[in-house]
Amino acid sequence: EATKIRGMEHWAGGSRSPHAVSPQVLGWRVAAAITWSVLLLPICTAAFIILSGLDPFHPVRWISNSFNDLYTSYVIFCIFLMSMVIIIISIFNIEFYAVVPSIPCSRLALIGKIIHPQQVIHSFVHAIMGMLVTWCATVMTKGRFQFLAVSCTPSEGLEDAVPQMCLNEYHLFFLLSGAFLGYSYSLFYLINNMNYLPFPIIQQYKYLRFRRSLPLLIKHSCVESLHFVRNFCVTYYFFGYIPKVWICTTMDLHTDGKLHPLDTLSGLLDLSLFYHTWLSGVFLLMTWYIAWLLFKIYATESHHFPIQPTFAQETDQCLPKILNSNPPLLIKFLALQDLMLLSQYSPVRRQEVFSLSQPGGHPHNWTAISRECLSLLSDLTQRLIAQQEAAAAANGRAKPPVGELKVPPQTPEDMSFQSQRSNIVLRASMSPLVKPSLMPVKTSPGSDVGSPFSSPALNYKMGVVDIKSPWHGPVQSPHVMRRGPKLWTSVSDQQMNGSHHESFPVLSAARTGTEAVQPRFIYTWLQNKQEQIKTFLSKRALIMYFFSKHPEASIQAVFSDAQMHIWALEGLSHLVAASFTEDQFGVVQTTLPAILNTLLTLQEVVDRHFKLPHVSSKPPRISGSLVDTSYKTLRFALRASLKTALYRITTVFGEHLNAVQVSTEHKKRLQQFLEYKE
Amino acid sequence: MFPHLSGLTLPCAPSRAGCTVRAFAWHPHTNKFAVALLDDSIRVYNSNSATVPSLKHRLQRNVAAMAWKPLCASILAVACQSCVLVWHLDPTSLSTRPSSGCAQVLSCPGHSPVTSLAWAPSGERLLSASPVDTAMLVWDVSTETCVQLQWFGGGGVTYLAWSPDGSKVLAATPSAVFRVWEAQMWTCERWPTIRGRCQTGCWSPDGSRLLFTVLGESVIYSLSFSEYRGEMQGQVGGSKTASIVADLSETTFETLYGEERIGGEVHSMVWDPTGERLAVIIRGHPESPNSQPAVAVFRTRNSPVFELLPCGFVRGERGARPQLISFHPCFPQGALLTVCWSSGKISHIPFFFVGALEPHASPRRSPVPVPAWHPRASPPSGAPHTCTGAGCAAPAPIKGGFSLPLLSSP
Q: Residue ranges of the Aladin seven-bladed propeller domain (chain B) (predicted)?
């Protein structure tokens, strides 16, 4: 119990932010998941005991014996021991979970993950735990597997010889199989990204979700156990003598000459041994998978965040506050999921979103929510642009014409979004060379004057965006560096005058000065070197095998957190659609141009992404297995919900959208949507 | 093999004589509809374009239902023998034979034949059901993943209807039970009927009232639901009992063609998107020669109290029996009823009226002024057997003596 609580505190409290909401929301979920998996353990144990004593020829004796065994003290001790194992496994589940899967893009990265110290500890502990579980299994099975050392008489037929202690190789075989299964479980856990928490496509009660997954879980455990035991037999056949000899020497045991050694073909062809090994493997995997499944179900259950605080101390737990802060990712996911649900199903809570603050009359809730959703979406837009640039550079193709994505002039209200976005772009595309000279863009207080959302928090947030996103590092290729500023300066030329303009001469100076002379030389030199190294390496097939990036994996990696964006899209579009009849104060109208711009820009970029080479336009087949691979298809879900979101807005607003200020290009696109021709 | 399915007739089983159109579906936002023909090909007719794409696929066999995805330009889900095909049609394309690469195949072992489909009105999920599979599937079409909604007892699902507000789903089973699912947490209320299985059903526009009919009874039942709010998670909120709102037992009418007997079981029933007109196909008695199937139209009102008034009959050419009926989802001037006749003709019958409610744009109704295509005057170009006008189908005026027991529910 103590271990459990400490583990929970570590998980919930030791997170990266001082939010009060995390222990509250997550602590209970973890506790409930662990409790249920421990409570289900006796049932699994009973099933195991009944099946391990299988005797089809004497069914009555078999059943009565099994039931008698259930109450024995050693079974109860085993259940206690295995509860400890389950708790430890659960703690590992909790420590290793991720809502955004990490996808290794090359084989080398995968190997790096396997030999990462964290993973080594994971594997080691799982191997030990596997050994413990199979030890319990041998104790509960009884019979010839129970003890490591058994008394035996020497084979030489000396009648007066004292009985010796001999090694029971069956027991050793069992223990090693447990360790092997534990290690294999850990390895597959890593390779199949089983630490990824997929959110279900429909909401359902926990019991129903568990019941739905249970048949799959049993089937998966049976098949997996079969594979693992087969692999183990092969391994034992080749290397089994090493542990055998080692145990014999350290414990001073003899080998029983009358028994057949197990590391031979005839020894391994023992059906009963195989059945019992397989059964204990199924038992081990099932109890562990149940713990894993329950944690998944509890952690991804939707949580109801209040929109407006009832009491002053609850301010931190409100949806707008959580969305705009930087909580653990799971909390952020839950908040966005809740946003999607409330926007779709709850008129009362939507009303709270559209409401004005009591003294002052500001639409704080809507502002905070829409700002966060838009910044998420424009962040994705930037990432996709960067990825497309990289793909174009890698293919050596002609770059798409500059200015294609120029940002249209906008109304002053959404200028702030614009400036925020362009700042992110600039920062994303900065090379280390220009970085120092550009710092004023972010820090200069003047650059945000006049925008309603100018606050230190915004700057802070932009910094966060820069740091947390892994995409801003590797994309600082000279291509992007040269193109990035140009892409967005049309705004500065046409629209951003006054305070906004002041920051841009710095940028242009940086561009003309540093970039024009130095990088061109460095760039060509670097590219030559790179080509040389590439051709050198490509001749060595083995190295290429490890280093080559798998295109599909890299695309999956770009969209690995797309679930957030899908919810942001659904939440935003449902809210905007509902605002047509429900928004009494017109708070949504002020952000409508910004929302349309962001969605249409993203739509263009996503469209272009699916036209890239190597990008399949159809999702791969997903077999209905226990291991969830939904992160592989997130990009298709994103594409579909983006289109649906746009249609949702255009269908509701109809001709009224013509009054919204958007660029001519976007207007054309909107017209297409209005005519249902997209 | 499936005793509970013995009495079941699929919407259009191939064996049924005189069946010419397997399925019909209006696009929810535009003047476009799809027709599945007897040879399992699907034609898509569009009022704005002369090209009529014909959809054929290796797996497109025994088409039983079709549904256009809402909030989307051109995605059509087709229920086939072994799978659900989802056609992605390019609305701007001029091709008449879209390749089978445009179709997504959604299949799940044990889930066949698929006979009913329903899209969520928000366009995000697709429901598919089969009379022999006890599980109903909720699909995320974009990723081709599905979730099984399982229950025990009652057999499969013969009919699906998603309420226009997206909150509830009617699922009729082959036994004397139907279920109403609540579409947020996916829990269901079980409704046993007395006589037989639920034959058809339709929802009021706000999802607060369900009208349904039962096999073997010639009455329309009504079931009201408490107003949907997101706060009552996991509750369907149906009232205790269903009430009878119309008795359609056989009656004799004086018509222009002489004396006719109309009445009997209801075969299918549709409610127009404004909630002002209800159309039902009344199946006549097969024994009596005078009795023939007919389309009856009712004038309805849902609030403040439910009202159902007889409005008239729609008749086709002599000998033609109505098979499928459907209302245009966004007809601006009132309601437009489409009837598929056994003769292979499809007729559009407009009802012009000013809605009782202030006409306002809602997600269900496209506010885009569609190029006013007057079905009486000019049929949509390209429709094969579109037969409009009084010669083919005319809402017959009500003759005296036809009295329906009119019940208004509390």
A: 18-351
Residue type, A210: F
Contact B217, B195 (CB under 8 A): yes
The structure tokens 């429709």 sit at: B383
Asked whether the beta carbons of residue B229 and residue A644 sit closer than 8 angstroms, the reply is no
Mutation target among A199, A201, A669 for the B interface, most CBs of B within 10 A: A201
Tokens 């999607």 correspond to: A340
**Contact in structure between B285 and B341 (CB atoms under 8 Å):** no
Count Cβ atoms within 10 A of the Cβ of residue A265 and give its class: 0-12 exposed, 13-18 middle, 19 or more buried.
exposed
DSSP element (H, E) containing B300: strand B294-301
In percent, the amount of chain A with pLDDT more than 90 equals: 45
B329: cis peptide before it, omega within 30°? no
Tokens of B303: 């609030």
Cα A60 from chain centre: 50
Q: Residue A85 corresponds to which tokens in the numbers above?
A: 């194992």
Query: Chain A neighbours among B 90-119 (CB < 8 Å)?
Result: 91-92, 104, 108
Could you say which of B108, B147, B185 has the minimum Cβ distance to residue A205?
B185
> What does the alpha-carbon distance between residue B335 and residue B279 come to, in Å, rounded to a whole number?
11
Query: What is the per-residue pLDDT for A153?
Result: 66
Q: Which one-letter DSSP state was computed for residue A23?
A: I
Return the half-sphere exposure (C-beta side, CA atoms, 13 A cut-off) of residue A554.
21
**Residues of A whose CB is below 8 A from B234:** 205
ipTM: 0.85
CB contact under 8 A, B361 and A342: no
Alpha carbon distance B374, B393 (integer Å): 15
Q: Tokens standing for B174?
A: 């082959």
Q: How many whole angstroms separate alpha carbon A643 and alpha carbon A658?
A: 19
Measured N-to-C along each axis, helices A169-191 and A117-141 cross at an angle, to the nearest 10 degrees, of 140
Positive or negative torsion for Cα A527, A529, A535, A541: negative
State mean pLDDT over B232-254. 80
Residues 134-153 of B with CB under 8 A from A: 138, 140-145, 147-148, 150
**Helix spans in A325-429 (H):** 329-345, 347-354, 364-395, 415-428
In terms of Cβ atoms closer than 10 Å to its own Cβ (0-12, 13-18, 19+), residue A597 is buried
Predicted TM-score of the model (pTM): 0.80
Instruction: Give the confidence band of A460 by pLDDT, cuts at 50, 70, 90.
Output: very low
Contact at 8 Å (CB) between B276 and B355?
yes
Gyration radius of chain A over CA positions: 31
A654's torsion region: left (phi>0), alpha (psi -120 to 50) or beta? left
CB contact under 8 A, A346 and B229: yes
Distance CA B361, CA B368 (A): 9
**A100 exposure class (CB count in 10 Å sphere: 0-12, 13-18, 19+):** middle
The residue count of chain A comes to 678
Buried b (16+ CB within 10 A) or exposed e, A200-222: bbbbbebebbbebbeeebbebbe
What residues does B346 pair with on adjacent strands? B340, B386
The CA distance from B318 to the nearest CA of chain A, in Å, is 39
Pick A268 or B124 by higher pLDDT: B124
Tokens of residue A381, six digits: 């837009």
Q: How many CB atoms lie within 10 A of CB A143?
A: 11
- Within chain A, how many helices (H) and strands (E) appear? 28, 2
Cis ω for the linkage preceding B304 (within 30 of 0): yes
Share the mean pLDDT of chain A.
Answer: 78
Tell if the CB–CB gap between A348 and B91 is shorter than 8 Å: no
Token output for A214? 């249970």
A212 vs B148: CB contact, 8 Å cut-off? yes
